Amino acid sequence: MNHFLNILKYAKPYKSYAIGHIISNVFFALFGTLSFISMMPMLKVIFKEDTKVPSQKPVYEGIIKIDDYVGDLLAYEMNRITGGDNSKALLFTICLIVVMFLLKNLFGYLANYFLVFLRNGVIRDLRNKVYKKTIELPLSYLSEQRKGDILSRVTSDVLDLQYSFLSVLEIIVREPLTIIFTIVAMLYISPQLTLFVFIFIPVMGFIISKIGNSLKRKSDRVQKEQGTFLSTLEETLTGLRIIKGFNAESKFNEKFQESTSRFYRFSNKLMNRQNLASPTSEFLGICMIATILWYGGNLVLSKDTSLALDGSKFLIYLGLAYNILTPAKAISRGLYNVKKGGAAAERIQEIIDTENPLKDLPNAIKKESFDSEIEFKDITFRYDDEDVLKNFSLTIPKGKMVAFVGQSGSGKSTITNLITRFYHVNNGEILIDGININDISTSSLRKQLGIVTQDAILFNDSIKNNIKLGKSDATDDEIIEALKVANAWEFVKDLDGVLNYNIGDAGTKLSGGQKQRLSIARAVLKSPPIMILDEATSALDTESERVVQTALENMMKNRTSIVIAHRLSTIQTADTIVVLKKGKIVEQGQHNELIAKNSVYKKLVDMQSFE
């Protein structure tokens, strides 16, 4: 229930629709009950029951005599309108019934009309909240999660809420009010019979609740398994070339089918348990009707005038009793849905409530420029329990190019992850112009940085929109200039649509070198003072590397550059080359100096095993 209340918090912006929905449901329930009561005069006429017509309009004498007052008032008004003509009375009653049902359905439509905006608005805001929190969370959180599981939470879990938790909004007012109004009418017709019926209501509630107890657990299994096969699907689409190249289609197909088979079994158990709700409540309702027929029938046949019940009243009472079944069934389904939706709400709330360790400080500094130097001060960082960097210290002056080399796992890429605040250092400080980057707002820090990675990450959009990612207000002329600096204009100008050319999913319509040049153009357009190149040419062939290297040199002019190097050609001109081994600096200096030392760097050069 706590999860249900948390979800309802998102309904606050739509309170006007909620109020309209509640008011419409009040009138729906009222006219739904009155539509049955309005049949009573017609039945009296049909059964030719004698009804005393008061000569004067009745006077209300308190709640104790309300039964007599309502009956006398109805008889008096009916007689006044029809003049005692039964045919006219019958026609008048039929018109009254039609009006009651018309009003009932009109307010039913209005209730659903308001609910559409309320429910869809909550779903939209909830989905936006989960997505926003997902992209705010650090890479460390996302690296521990399956992508498919996150996709499942944003899509299917939110849909589960729409058809479970939020469907309860439809019945949270309407059905209880319908039951209350109906019970009031039943008490008015026969208090004895109504009190007898009340014995069955707790029994029905107990049985239905027992059936629904395991729904949340079963639903949780279904949603987790859905996340599993979505993860397999995402991995398959991403690595399809490797899967085919290693003839692993059957292995992945088997893995996917095992997951969907578990999903099939879990779903069957969940749905079969859920499907018990409606027939169980209907059967219990019919048992209640059968009891009413037995006990009420005896009241109709009774010769005791204090207990006797008119035939017309008894028929109306039966209709009202049956009228309770529909909202009772809806409420029982609603209780099932709340239990079923509890698992989805919990999974969604888990993301929303996850604490972001990289969140900006309340008084975070907005840094607008880079003026002097970057300093790594006695840095220690570990993934899990293993130190990747140990007591790492280095100063990078403004305008200098510093390259990091070393074998795989030596901590090179970790340095770029720390300076961009993708991760927090465990010990030590990273300072920019003497300010700890943890004291700088993440947004203003990253405005000072441009990143070109080994994998050119592009999006299924036009060339223009991919390049404008870091500068949304860039003009076409600025984009073209950035493409020229990145040596990309030579192929872009020949594409169909030029800047508006759609590059396909992850840039699949382009070659590796073309994609990398576009990612360089994106960084050039942003024009940050600090450039980070994380093995930007290591995945390219020799010809593409030469073109891209020229583009990189153009881009790095007059900028502070941090280069993670794999190939010797990219770092020979660096102001400082830092050689790392197991998270520690073992050598640093310029290319010629390190070659002359004939030590670790020289061995790496000879082996050509730069990472």
Describe the structure concisely.
The protein has 611 residues and is α/β, with parallel strands linked by helices. It contains 25 helices and 10 strands.
List keywords for this structure.
alpha/beta, 2 domains, 10% strand, 61% helix, Rossmann fold, elongated, 4-stranded antiparallel beta sheet, ABC transporter transmembrane region fold, 6-stranded mixed beta sheet
Q: Please, could you describe this protein's structure?
A:
By secondary structure, the protein is of the alpha/beta class. It folds into two domains: 2-230 and 265-353, ABC transporter transmembrane region fold, CATH 1.20.1560.10; 373-607, P-loop containing nucleotide triphosphate hydrolases (Rossmann fold, 3-Layer(aba) Sandwich), CATH 3.40.50. Helix content is 61%, strand content 10%. The protein has 25 helices and ten strands. It has helices at 2-8, 15-37, 40-46, 66-82, 86-136, 139-143, 147-163, 168-171, 174-189, 191-197, 200-212, 215-238, 240-245, 249-275, 277-301, 311-353, 412-419, 442-447, 463-467, 476-485, 489-492, 512-526, 542-556, 591-597, 600-607, and strands at 373-383, 386-397, 401-405, 427-432, 435-436, 449-453, 530-534, 560-564, 576-581, 584-589. The strands form two sheets. It has a six-stranded mixed β-sheet, sandwiched between helices. The relative contact order is 0.08. The mean pLDDT is 76.
